[in-house]
Amino acid sequence: MSLLKPLKRSSPCPCRSGASFGDCCEPFHRGLEPPTAEKLMRSRFSAYAAGNVDYILRTLHPNHADRAIPEEVLRETIRKGMSAFRYLGLTVEEAREEGERAFVTFTAKIMKQAKDHSFRETSEFEKTAEGWRYLSGETLPVRAK
Ligand SMILES: [Zn+2]
């Protein structure tokens, strides 16, 4: 597994949980399945911050729209996004699970050079036989501070 932006286990976790990377999202990146959809969502954000393309692909639901894209093309698109953006922070507003479905609303703070590309989204997740997977996302208006 090659990482674009390797992170130390002792570094603060990019998902801004307050825990270290090694005590938060890193075990999921190494193969443990996140027990909740919120943890999966957080670990996906951390994977973008750490440059872990494999994890983003692994946690993408088989029915996500991006699965229509040939895997090598998708992999390159994700890799380019990771290189171009800085993943600076994550705020989770709400997370609810309804059986095998879950919805997490969050704001991701993302910059490309000096330009703010932050966005707010409600992501939908489905629990598959493997674990929680990212099914789709709906972009929301960014809240005024
Ligand atoms: Zn984390």
Question: Can you walk me through this structure?
Answer:
- With 145 residues, the protein is α+β, with helices and mostly antiparallel strands.
- It has one domain (21-140): Nuclear Transport Factor 2, Chain: A (Roll).
- Helices cover 26% and strands 31% of the residues.
- Strands 1, 2, 3, 4 and 5 form a five-stranded antiparallel beta sheet that branches.
- Strand 4 and strand 5 form a beta hairpin.
- The longest helix has 14 residues, at 37-50.
- The model has no long low-confidence stretch (mean pLDDT 95).
- The protein binds zinc ion.
- Zinc ion is lined by residues 13, 15, 17, 24-25, 42, 46.
SSE arrangement:
Blueprint: H1 26-29, H2 37-50, H3 53-58, H4 71-84, E1 86-98, E2 101-112, E3 115-116, E4 119-127, E5 132-140
Antiparallel strand pairs: 1-2, 2-3, 2-4, 4-5
Bound molecules: zinc ion.
Zinc ion binds next to helix 2.
Given this structure, which CATH class is correct?
Alpha Beta
Oligomer: single chain
Q: Indicate the percent of residues in helices.
A: 25-40%
CATH architecture assignment name? Roll
Write the H/E string, N to C. HHHHEEEEE
Structurally, the number of domains stands at 1
Detail the poorly predicted runs: none
Q: Major sheet, described briefly? A: 5 strands, antiparallel
Please tally the β strands and state the result.
Answer: 5
Write a concise synopsis of the structure shown.
By secondary structure, the protein is an alpha+beta fold.
